[in-house]
Amino acid sequence: MKLVMMIVESSHKEELEVLINRNDIVGYTEIPEVLGAGESGFRMGSAAFPKTSSIIFTIVAAGKLRALVDDIKSSCGDACGKTLKVVVWGIEELI
Question: Would you say residue 95 lies in a domain?
């Protein structure tokens, strides 16, 4: 099992939700509007820096991970903007 964290500009989170469903991943958790700064600049949800990001977490069987990542790269890479980040962690134990 793998824990996948996807960080994307909030205006593009729906594209990731579609890909999750298309890859038969049953559940996910979404933090819809997160604030911060990074390579793409400030995302503070304010008048000066109006954009925000969203974070989507899901747990994926190791056998489904490659298909999901490939689908994200081919279907969402450009559509989700240059701010898309995908981080994958191994899960030692799931209770």
Answer: no
